[in-house]
């Protein structure tokens, strides 16, 4: 056998090898890109726009949340102006708070919605955003006397927990009285801003304390993150999809406290986009740009003026 030596074979091999490496890199990049596109596609698949009838069904509860900004003397007499007039058949049972040390709250029954209403007042947007971004707070386990049986790994914002605990027994008493008086079997807890955080904690609290025959749902507006990952997971399982938190456009409040601090949203987000559509965003902290985390990746991309609304034409405040 004759071996023939080709003087250019080495250089051809180098060219061939280099070409192969380039192709492999391009293929690898294509796989990564395909994976990203697929992940983004999966993320988008579950996002659905609410119908006009679904959007309008939230209007009474939006007004109930807005009414919580009114003085207790006007909510107990149901004479708070346009917000009260929007729910004319509401039967107030109790109201309280001083708007300072304790946020306003009220309890009553809505015949048209066939549910007991519990509503919590929110707070000033600028001050609240500052409080939620200065990291002068920590995560703590829920009070076992109020939340018996909740795992100790479930932790929430200490300030939210303290505020909710200050009114919890009183609110429970009046909720039970209202359920009995109106032979009701449903409770809806509403709130905006800080009030939405309190509504979520109250929803969990009432679900634990009330009979299993009573349905408890939470509807929050501009809700900040309330607890850690275990809290979000536990609420998703325990309340069984009975939580809706509605975010308006580029509102920065729903993206704080940050996930880097250990906070996570529960499922149930509805995001009102710049075009006015209401998008149902599946999962926790959905990062699609159709949802709040993707639309407002940091507070500098947010707009505080979006926090108070409008939520389908309704601005928060008394």
UniProtKB/TrEMBL annotation:
Gene3D superfamilies the UniProt entry points to: alpha/beta hydrolase
CDD domains: Lipase_3
Pfam families, sorted: Lipase_3
Keywords: Disulfide bond
Keyword flag Disulfide bond: yes
Any one GO biological process: lipid metabolic process
Superkingdom in the source lineage: Eukaryota
Fungal lipase-type domain residues: 118-259
Reactions this protein catalyses: a monoacylglycerol + H2O = glycerol + a fatty acid + H(+); a diacylglycerol + H2O = a monoacylglycerol + a fatty acid + H(+)
Span of the signal peptide: none
Family: Belongs to the AB hydrolase superfamily. Lipase family. Class 3 subfamily.
PANTHER family for this protein: ALPHA/BETA-HYDROLASES SUPERFAMILY PROTEIN, FUNGAL LIPASE-LIKE DOMAIN-CONTAINING PROTEIN
Full protein name: Lipase
Originating species: Lactarius akahatsu
